[in-house]
């Protein structure tokens, strides 16, 4: 009897084990099938978004402005959405208040990076073409400037300008007279933004369209919200990879181009111009202009690293300093290699005190620092117009010979005086020489923005 019971129990256990095995195997198979479905879903997502990326690139290449050309096909997106609208338990991400396939969002952000980089390359091509067109305009304007410069009427005009300057007590009247007329004639019809306006307007339109389309494409990957989310972001976070690359490039390139487009400021002094005949003057200006245009193209290709590539021992560096939103002055230093700078300024920890400039001047001392501390988050700029008169070793020796020197004087012994002395032997500051003109420019900016500033301040009343 016992034996029969044991056999019966064993048989029952065997049946249970088999049943459990069948159940577990079924669950494993179901899990495997579900995993395969998720994997297939992810592959489908990647395939569709890759196809959209290529379609958008083709759209950019073929688009001519404001036509109604379709940017990408929607049929496969609609089909995918219908097939997957009830797909549950896939990884999701919450964007604002809705849920989307995590894979789709990741792939769309990768796509946006590709498209934004492609758009930046298009912007570069437009800018380079614009600079080349600008070069031809400059060549014509150089001839006009030489005609003006050697015109007999200029002497009478200059005599009157000198007299008015004498009566008003204004200094550097003659230098300013030539510089202003040089700028006026050379820049005639040569504004780069005007030259590229039509092409850039078309590209702006494309950029804006694509920005909106990515937000729409995202909606085709909306999923049921009864699922666990890996993260919560906003629409701004989602679109950031697309906007960031383009915005940073625009900011860097136009700032760098503006700095580069001043080749005439120090190059054409009265003394230099009056020692040349007409053909020599035209050739000198042309050579400098061509070099400046070449520099612009290098900036367009890589605005961030352009200045760092130009950095050599003995380079005179400067950074902009802003007060109340206005570019008030530049701080200068001398580069001595190995990312080290020697400059005339307060020591680290004794920052410039705008409220008490005299105290800052008294604490200023010539000392060595790092390039990073010198820049302090500001854009690197190099005065490319300075011609080095000494060897690199001699420049370093001259700069170090004055370390720990004090006696800062805004008008007679400032940071620019020191930097130029190290490199050229001349203790001069063009900021001081051009101070009356700088004040006029600043006052003009204040007047232009008076009403805007008043309205802004009115918000706090």
Describe this structure in words.
With 461 residues, the chain is of the alpha+beta class. The protein folds into two domains: 34-62 and 72-302, no CATH class; 311-448, Alpha-Beta Complex (endopeptidase fold (from Nostoc punctiforme)). Helices cover 64% and strands 11% of the residues. It is built from 18 helices and eight strands. The protein has helices at residues 2-62, 75-84, 102-149, 152-168, 173-186, 192-195, 197-219, 235-260, 270-274, 278-301, 306-310, 357-363, 371-375, 392-400, 415-424, 430-433, 435-448, 450-458, and strands at residues 92-95, 98-101, 229-233, 316-323, 326-337, 340-346, 364-370, 381-382. The chain has a five-stranded antiparallel beta sheet. It has a three-stranded mixed beta sheet with strand order 2-1-3. Helix 1 (2-62) packs antiparallel against helix 2 and helix 3 packs antiparallel against helix 7 (197-219). The chain starts with a helix and ends with a helix. Mean pLDDT is 78; it is low at 27-31 and 445-461.
Any key phrases for this structure?
alpha+beta, endopeptidase fold (from Nostoc punctiforme), 2 domains, five-stranded antiparallel β-sheet, 64% helix, disordered C terminus
- The end-to-end span amounts to 103 Å
Helix percentage range: 55-70%
Radius of gyration: 34 Å
User: How are helices and strands ordered from N to C?
Assistant: HHEEHHHHHEHHHHEEEHEHEHHHHH
Question: How big a fraction of the residues is strand?
Answer: 5-15%
**How would you write the strand order of the largest sheet?**
7-6-5-4-8
Mean pLDDT comes to 78
Number of helices: 18
Low-confidence stretches: 27-31, 445-461
Helix and strand content put the structural class at alpha+beta
Number of strands: 8
């Amino acid at each position: 009897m016992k034996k029969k019971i044991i056999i019966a129990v064993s048989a029952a256990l065997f049946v249970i084990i088999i049943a459990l095995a069948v159940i577990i195997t079924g669950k494993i198979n179901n899990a495997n099938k579900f995993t395969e479905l998720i994997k297939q879903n992810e592959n489908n997502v990647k395939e569709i978004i890759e196809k959209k990326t290529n379609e958008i690139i083709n759209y950019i290449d073929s688009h001519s402005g404001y036509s109604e050309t379709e940017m990408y096909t929607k049929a496969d997106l609609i089909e995918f959405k219908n097939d997957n609208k009830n797909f549950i338990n896939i990884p999701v991400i919450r964007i604002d208040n809705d849920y989307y396939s995590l894979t789709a969002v990741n792939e769309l952000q990768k796509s946006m990076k590709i498209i934004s980089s492609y758009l930046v390359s298009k912007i570069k091509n437009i800018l380079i073409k614009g600079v080349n067109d600008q070069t031809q305009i400059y060549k014509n304007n150089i001839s006009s400037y030489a005609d003006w410069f050697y015109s007999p009427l200029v002497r009478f005009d200059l005599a009157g300008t000198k007299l008015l300057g004498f009566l008003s007590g204004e200094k550097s009247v003659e230098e300013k007279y030539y510089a202003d007329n040089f700028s006026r004639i050379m820049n005639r019809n040569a504004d780069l933004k005007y030259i590229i306006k039509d092409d850039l307007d078309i590209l702006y339109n494309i950029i804006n369209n694509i920005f909106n389309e990515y937000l729409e494409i995202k909606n085709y990957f909306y999923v049921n919200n009864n699922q666990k989310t890996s993260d919560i972001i906003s629409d701004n976070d989602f679109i950031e990879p697309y906007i960031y690359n383009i915005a940073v490039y625009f900011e860097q390139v136009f700032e760098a181009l503006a700095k580069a487009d001043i080749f005439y400021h120090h190059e054409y002094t009265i003394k230099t111009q009056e020692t040349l005949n007409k053909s020599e003057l035209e050739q000198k200006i042309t050579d400098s202009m061509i070099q400046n245009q070449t520099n612009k193209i290098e900036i367009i290709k890589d605005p961030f690293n352009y200045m760092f590539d130009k950095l050599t021992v003995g380079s005179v560096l400067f950074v902009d300093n802003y007060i109340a939103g206005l570019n008030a002055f530049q701080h200068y230093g001398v580069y001595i290699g190995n990312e080290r700078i020697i400059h005339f300024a307060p020591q680290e920890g004794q920052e410039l005190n705008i409220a008490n400039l005299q105290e800052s001047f008294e604490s200023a001392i010539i000392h060595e620092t790092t390039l990073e501390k010198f820049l302090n988050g500001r854009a690197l700029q190099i005065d490319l117009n300075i011609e080095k008169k000494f060897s690199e070793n001699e420049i370093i020796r001259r700069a170090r010979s004055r370390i720990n020197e004090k006696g800062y004087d805004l008008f007679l012994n400032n940071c620019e005086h020191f930097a130029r002395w190290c490199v050229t032997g001349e203790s001069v500051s063009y900021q001081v020489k051009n101070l009356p003109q700088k004040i006029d420019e600043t006052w003009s900016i204040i007047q232009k923005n008076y009403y805007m500033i008043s309205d802004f301040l009115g918000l706090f009343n």
